[in-house]
């Protein structure tokens, strides 16, 4: 037994007197954009923020959406929501990609307003929310809840094409910190 203990004790990394140089430690700072990177994303339009994925969490980036002057409030909510959805589906810019930003929202999705007996703040996606990845749903819910598309309390009523059921979703700190495994909390809402 003592021999075995001596052999196992010699398995560690031993110190050396010879200097070693493996270069500087990696200094990549994830999720950090410089001021010039941010300003290129916010062109003409209403300034908004969307939630992208970075280092396993949701992080806001600045964008803008165009809304025609004189748009009625109900139509404005849907136009803002569609603009946000389009921004989420865009491939992050090269500086954003270099900083580690990604998106799980796929292009081609549309959003419409309430149908039938839906509450007036309802947003209906062309893809049912239950068919989205947890990360994509978290990006959409958190982006909408932080915008003019949200209800007064910050929740978002989403559904798929009518007559699919409606749910009221919330963006919580837990969702923002781990969107891939924590789905936005939701409660059923009557509609259609």
Automatic annotation (TrEMBL):
Region called Disordered, residue ranges: 93-129, 152-192
> Biased composition, Low complexity: where in the chain?
179-192
Q: What is this protein called?
A: Lipoprotein
Instruction: Give the species this sequence originates from.
Output: Streptomyces sp. R41
Task: Output the lineage of the source organism.
Answer: Bacteria, Bacillati, Actinomycetota, Actinomycetes, Kitasatosporales
